[in-house]
Amino acid sequence: MSATQKTNGSPYGLHRVIEPEGVLPQPALKVDNSFDPIWDNEILLDVDTLNVDSASFTQIKKEAEGNTEKIGEIICRIVSERGKLHNPVTGSGGMFMGRIIETGEKLSDRNLQEGDYLVSLVSLSLTPLVINEIREIKPDIDQVVIDGRAVLFESGIYAKMPDDLPPTLALAVLDVCGAPAQTARLVQEGDTVVILGATGKSGMLCAYEAKKKTGAGGRIIGFGHTPSKCDKLEELGLCDAIVKVDAENAPECFRTVSDITGGSMADVVINCVNIPDTEMASILMCREGGTVYFFSMATSFTKAALGAEGVGKDVNMIIGNGYVKGHAEQALNILRESRPLRELYETLYV
Fold it and tell me: Tens of pLDDT along 52-85?
């Protein structure tokens, strides 16, 4: 441990904010990503992999026109300008995994030691980060292999890498662990649940939890866009109906769910897509007094709020808080419980 650690740092990382003054690290435009020395309430890590938020990676990939070299350039540019991977278009980041280099003196009671392999459970959009080199870009799974460093603040949450799952698989699942945990909270026995983006990483985990909670009297309707992914979802047996409808087409989504439910619509709608303009589809598919959970970081909450008002729909709308107590272990347990899901995820992320 360095003898020159800085002292009296904010538990929320305010000491790292460069501009503007008076804001927390997440909304800040620029943070200090210098690590020599660190503060005595931080954890310094050697970072080997970034799991970029799906909405952010989709936007970057589109801007780069699919060129992996340009994807890397855009990521490095963002980090150089902001001191963190905070996408200026989507406002989101992702998470990382890496090994501890040094812990602050104030954190000595956390049972952490040099070499521990951690997965961050806070967004890269607030995490001071340095990228020395991009070694590989995996556009199909939104992961970037790097040589870099990052710090976690005193308030930052993390998980130690589990021994029974491959690291890249654990990282992928932990990136979205808030979604299935929130699903388990929101869904009740007998509910009709619609999942937008049900064929994606978070969507399948949500479908698994929703199936458990609804029981025999419930119904899970999964929306997907790619036929091959819809076929894989069908093989898992997690959905009672799988439909291939564009989530940006709100009237078509409404008609589809109305036909399936006989006009009663969904009790809970879970939005896991990684593209914008799906707010109204989510709202229209929900019954009066039902709940819409926007896990997607591509969501415009202005569009959602004003759109619901515009169509006179009284629904409960929940922001996709990525943190739920116990969410990391809950998500990892899904892979331990479901052999088919684990095998599918291993084909994608290992």
Answer: 999 999 999 999 999 999 999 999 999 999 999 9
Question: 69 is written with which tokens?
Answer: 């070299």
Q: What is the pTM of this model?
A: 0.87
Contact 272, 294 (CB under 8 A): no
CB 205 within 8 A of CB 330: no
Sequence-distant (6+) residues with CB within 8 A of 179 are 202, 205, 206, 270, 272, 295, 320
Region 25-35: what's the mean pLDDT?
Answer: 98
Q: Give the type of residue at 13.
A: G
pLDDT at 2: 55
Average pLDDT rounded to a whole number, residues 7-26: 96
Phi and psi dihedrals of 41, rounded to 5? -120, 30
Question: Residue 73 burial (CB < 10 Å; 0-12/13-18/19+)?
Answer: middle
134 to 49, 74, 110, 156: CA distances (angstroms):
9, 12, 31, 25
Return the H-helix or E-strand segment holding 102.
Answer: strand 94-103
What is the chain's percent helix, strand, coil content, to nearest 5? Answer: 35, 25, 40
**What top-level class would CATH report for the domain 178-349?**
alpha beta
What angle do helix axes 339-349 and 227-236 make, rounded to 10 degrees?
150
For residue 93, give both structure tokens. Answer: 């980041």
Whole-number pLDDT of residue 111: 84
- SS3 readout for 79-100: HHHHCCCCCCCCCCCEEEEEEE
Under 8 Å between Cβ of 288 and 313: yes
Domain ranges within the chain, ordered by starting residue: 14-161, 178-349
What is the model's pLDDT at position 110?
A: 75
The pLDDT tens digits for 89-108 are 999 999 999 999 999 999 86
217 within 8 A of 190, measured Cβ to Cβ: yes
Tens-place pLDDT, residues 277-290: 999 999 999 999 99
